């Protein structure tokens, strides 16, 4: 597998970019990862990078986007923060990726058994963690409107993880006129997915 070039990046539609990630995850769960020569990819990307997607995921050690989507060097921008929440710096990073570096897809990737989501549901408060977990509150409120489950019920927590991805997608569109503008023009797409830490499978919300 070769690193992406300006030509391969230009030729991709947002849908094609999503297919690359879906196919990569399929290889990952089947243990059929592409045979990449990473050192060769270092050489191929020495003069520039043309990543086709920007992925916002959690810092969780099990959710490395490059690994679970079977991607190599120069393929994706990877933004990671506990609970895959949005902030100004994440938005700026995404805007750079799609407007100046040519990426076609913005993916918000949540995951099951997320420590940040679980802690937010359990109303943990400590140091700077408090402000971070506060960003997950809108998803908790939405989940509470849907069901009467206790907030420490594992099913409730997984629903919050899903809704937290929807919240992030909405926030990206609302707070970034660059991203929402490019999406309206059909040049990029904002999508969401959840990674299952028990199976390695990524479920996209469009499925
Ligand atoms: Zn997490």
UniProtKB/TrEMBL annotation:
Zn(2+) binds at residues 58, 60, 111, 114. It comes from Cyclobacterium lianum. The keyword Ion transport does not apply. Its cofactor is Zn(2+). One of its GO terms (molecular function) is zinc ion binding. Keywords: Metal-binding, Zinc. NCBIfam families: PRK15219.1. It holds the Pfam family Pro_CA. Belongs to the beta-class carbonic anhydrase family. This is Carbonic anhydrase. Binds 1 zinc ion per subunit. It comes from the Bacteria. The keyword Zinc applies.
């Amino acid at each position: 597998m070769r690193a992406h070039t300006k030509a391969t990046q230009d030729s991709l539609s947002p849908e094609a970019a999503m297919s690359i990630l879906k196919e990569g995850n399929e290889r990952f769960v089947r243990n059929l990862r592409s045979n990449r020569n990473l050192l060769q990819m270092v050489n191929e990307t020495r003069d520039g990078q043309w990543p086709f997607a920007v992925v916002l995921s959690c810092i969780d050690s099990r959710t490395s986007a490059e690994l679970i989507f079977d991607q190599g060097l120069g393929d994706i921008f990877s933004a990671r923060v506990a609970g895959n929440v949005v902030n100004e710096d994440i938005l700026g990073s995404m805007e750079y990726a799609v407007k100046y570096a040519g990426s076609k897809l913005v993916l918000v990737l949540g995951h099951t058994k997320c420590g940040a989501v679980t802690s937010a549901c359990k109303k943990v408060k400590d140091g700077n963690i408090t402000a971070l977990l506060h960003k997950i509150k809108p998803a908790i409120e939405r989940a509470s409107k849907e069901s009467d489950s206790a907030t420490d019920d594992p099913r409730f927590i997984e629903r919050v993880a899903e809704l937290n991805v929807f919240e992030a997608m909405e926030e990206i569109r609302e707070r970034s006129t660059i991203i929402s503008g490019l999406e309206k023009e059909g040049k990029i797409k904002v999508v969401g997915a959840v990674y299952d830490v028990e199976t390695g499978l990524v479920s996209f919300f469009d499925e």
